[in-house]
């Protein structure tokens, strides 16, 4: 199976040329077929359904041309949605002062799930404010982190 890092390196130039960024990538199985699920967005602003369809076609052509995938696969390209996943340091920094949900790989201060305001992000981890108290979560202990959209 193709590695995540190799897949990211392969598609980055195509996305960058169009002003898009890879927000998340999921590689799994759908029955016997490989499932490639890409979540992309415009670097500034949102992405349209038509743009998602164009990128889907371009990625399919790229994978067929590069011959890096030696099995049947399902390709899905979508926007990250309003509760977008946060993975990279730059993602966390972009959404400072927003409310996030974080699931840790192990207990930190007696808990695994955190819901709070993201107030800091650096190469070591993120800092949340929960009920007036700061909690630091190292990047290597973040299993999953998502924005929580705040309706006005």
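-> sequence recovered:
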């Amino acid at each position: 199976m193709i590695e995540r890092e190799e897949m990211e390196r392969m598609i980055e130039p195509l996305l960058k040329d169009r002003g898009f960024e890879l927000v998340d990538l999921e590689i799994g199985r759908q029955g016997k077929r490989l499932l490639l699920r890409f979540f992309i967005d415009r670097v500034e602003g949102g992405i349209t359904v038509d743009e998602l369809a164009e990128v889907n076609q371009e990625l399919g052509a790229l994978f067929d041309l590069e011959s890096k995938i030696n099995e049947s696969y399902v390709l899905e390209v979508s926007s990250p949605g309003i509760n977008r996943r946060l993975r990279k340091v730059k993602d966390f920094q972009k959404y400072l002062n927003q409310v996030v949900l974080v699931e840790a790989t192990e207990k930190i201060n007696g808990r695994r799930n955190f819901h709070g305001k993201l107030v800091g992000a650096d190469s070591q981890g993120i800092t949340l404010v929960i009920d007036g108290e700061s909690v630091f979560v190292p990047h290597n202990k973040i299993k999953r982190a998502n924005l929580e959209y705040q309706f006005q």
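The domain at 89-147 is CATH 2.30.30.100 (SH3 type barrels.).
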